[in-house]
Amino acid sequence: MAIRFFSDGVSFQPEGKRKISHWLKQVAAKEGKKTGHLFFIFVSDEMILDINNKFLQHDDYTDIVTFDYSTGDTISGEMYISIDTVQLNAKDYQVDFHNEMLRVMVHGVLHLCGYKDSTCNEQQEMRAIEDKYLNEY
Questions:
Q1: Is 122 left (phi over 0), alpha (psi -120 to 50) or beta?
Q2: CA-to-CA distance for 26 and 13, rounded, in angstroms?
Q3: pLDDT by 10-residue block (mean), the chain, 137 residues
Q4: By C-alpha distance, which of 98, 124, 134, 119 is closest to 17?
Q5: Domain 3-136 has CATH 3.40.390.30
Q6: Backbone region of residue 16 per phi and psi (left: phi > 0; alpha: psi in -120 to 50; beta: other values)
Q7: Can you tell me the distance from the alpha carbon of 120 to that of 123, in angstroms, rounded to the nearest whole number?
Q8: Domain residue ranges of the chain, discontinuous segments joined by +
Q9: Residue 59 and residue 28: Cα distance in Å, rounded?
């Protein structure tokens, strides 16, 4: 199916969209999933805060909000990514912006594959899996 990239209120498009799409499809396949429609929507902090408030009743900024429309072993979803927060996180973690963006994107795909990050243990597991796939990029 399709992996698509959109911007809403920000002017951003990721570098190497084809390579990213191929990589994310491989991640899904290694997790035993097929890719359906995956939409990455790049937004501002204000928009991510609005989405977080409206749909998740969370009153805080975040790097990604994932809406899961998966069925069976086919993952599909919308992933809203705050460019502002990704930039801040890249600076805080002292990593390249592009690498941090890849981490956030694979994080969303891993959520669609069934991974959670509510507890400390789940967060550690998610980070380890993100690292594994980032090394394969």
A1: alpha
A2: 21
A3: 93 94 98 97 96 84 94 97 97 96 98 95 96 96
A4: 98
A5: yes
A6: left
A7: 5
A8: 3-136
A9: 31
